[in-house]
Amino acid sequence: MRFPLQTASLRQLVILSFLLAMIPVGVLMWQSHKALSGLSRFATSEAESAVISVRRAENMQNLVVDIERAVRQYTVVKTDALARVAQSHISNQQLSLAQLCHDLPKLSECIQQQADLQQLAAQFAQLTGTPLEQLLQQIRMRQQHISQQIWDLLEQRLLNQQKLVQDAQQRQAWQTVALVLLTLLLVLWASGRVAAPVKKLDKMIRAIGQQQQFPDGKLEGPRELSELGEQLRWLSSRLQQLEALRLILLRHASHELKTPLSSIREGCALLTEQLLGPLNPKQLEVVMLLNGSADRLSQLTEQLLDYNRLLQQAKPELSRQIPQQLLQACFADHALSLQQRQQQIKLDCQLSSIYTDETLFRRILDNLINNAQAYGAESSPVWVKLYQQDAMLVLDVANNGAPIPTALREKLFEPFQRGTTPRFDAVQGSGLGLSIVADCARLLGGHADIVDVVYADVCIRVRLPLLEEK
After folding, report:
1. How far is CA 399 from each of CA 52, 336, 430, rounded to the nearest angstrom?
2. Which of 64, 192, 220, 304 to pair with 156, CA 20 to 30 A apart?
3. How far, in Å, CA of 182 to CA of 178, rounded?
4. pTM flag (> 0.70)
5. Which domain holds residue 366?
6. If you average pLDDT over every residue of the chain, what do you get?
């Protein structure tokens, strides 16, 4: 049964699931009809039996009265006609009693009443006076007892009928619960047949979007979803090929640019220093512009190479580091640009050592300090905080300046995305700085965000897991 379900289409699976879920409902309806029909037949039979028993008891009570009347009349006027009438009443009473005793074997006084009736039939012509009255009274009292027993038996049968109905109701309730649970299990199974491949499709899409390893194995489920899984697998393979081509192109283009760019920068430096001859002011201005453009192109090339190396780094190389040394070394590299804009670093380092990748952590620091220096207000401090929060290592780099709109905050961490705020230095941004920060944080198992703080206009927060040496 498993194989056809795997190759079935989504429509077939939905229809089959609906039919399977309807089976317990149909069984429940059939069981209910069967139980109600049985109870109806039983109630009808019991009602008919009760009516017959009540009528028979009333008839026998009336016959006893007729017997007494006929026997007494015979004792006064002894005629053959009265004797036959009395004998006929006694015979009818015996037949009714015999039928009653057969239908209701639990009646305790049937045998004694039959014996009394036989004695009366045989001796009513000879008995007179007190013996006859005692026999008639005994027959009458026993008939009253028999009638009372009939009513007691009817009440008992009514109680039994009520108990039977209650048992049927309880049994029907348990069957209903069991069949509802079975229906629920079938619905959950059917939904799982659809939800499981959909969940795996979601993992495939996330793996493609986050550039993770694509899940192995063929997607099992409805035919349409299985075909969609194969298309996603083809798309993942195609994107990996395009990514590999992009990296190769980026690596070669960046490498090939460095050699002629170095020659251009050296030539511009020679012309600027006027080692090849004096330059007039206009020529010197043009050379200065060429020199600035060469520096800008050199910086963009270095960023592209740095981003390419970051993409190729698959696993961090963790080691024990002293954060104060990393921070001070980074501040020293950016000291000149900070001094030109009269910006000071306000450091708050609360950790004495961290276990991380030195290269990735330094890239995060370099890009965040460069970002704060370039976009921060002149003569305004740059706040750098390193502390522990719960089980995370938190790095905050904040500065004053134009706040970043909430709608642009996530977009700025994408490659080649720049904000609307202009840089205050002479370099035009490439849009790779925050992207490198986000990718480095991701490689270290964390993430980067732009958050609001009370002491600065802009704050970029990097959260990394607080790792320990193994």
Report:
1. 104, 18, 20
2. 64
3. 6
4. no
5. 316-465
6. 78
